[in-house]
Amino acid sequence: MSDEMINVLYFAWMREHTGTASEQIALPDGAQTVGDLMPTLMARSAGHALALKNMAAVRVAINRSHGGLKTPVAAGDEIAFFPPVTGG
User: Fold this and answer.
1) Contacts with 25 (C-beta within 8 Å, 6 or more apart), sequence order
2) Which of 50, 55, 18, 20 shows the shortest CA–CA distance to 35?
């Protein structure tokens, strides 16, 4: 792992599963996209694995802009995971 950090945010039921609203982690060596982060994030706990297992049901934002698994990431970035928002 490198010593370059990223900030990861979890919202709604994802926060409940992970047990945290945010965490700072080292950007894994060689990680260039959100998808590259997934194995590291899912390995953090069983709750993380549960929250992130179905990425088709999860939205991603990088530095407050919508993104996806192929969106590039870099040290200092903020990556947010949240379920789709519904309203009425």
Assistant:
1) 5, 6, 8, 40, 41, 44
2) 55
What confidence score (pLDDT) does residue 1 get? 43
Strand runs labelled E in 27-72: 59-62, 65-67
Contact 48, 42 (CB under 8 A): yes
Burial grade of 81 (CB within 10 A; 0-12, 13-18, 19 or more): buried
pTM of the predicted structure, to 2 decimals: 0.91
Q: Is residue 1 a contact partner of residue 28, using CB atoms and an 8 Å limit?
A: yes
For the chain, state the CA radius of gyration: 12
- Predicted confidence at residue 84, as pLDDT, reads 82
CA distance 65 to 80: 9
3-class secondary-structure state, position 17: helix
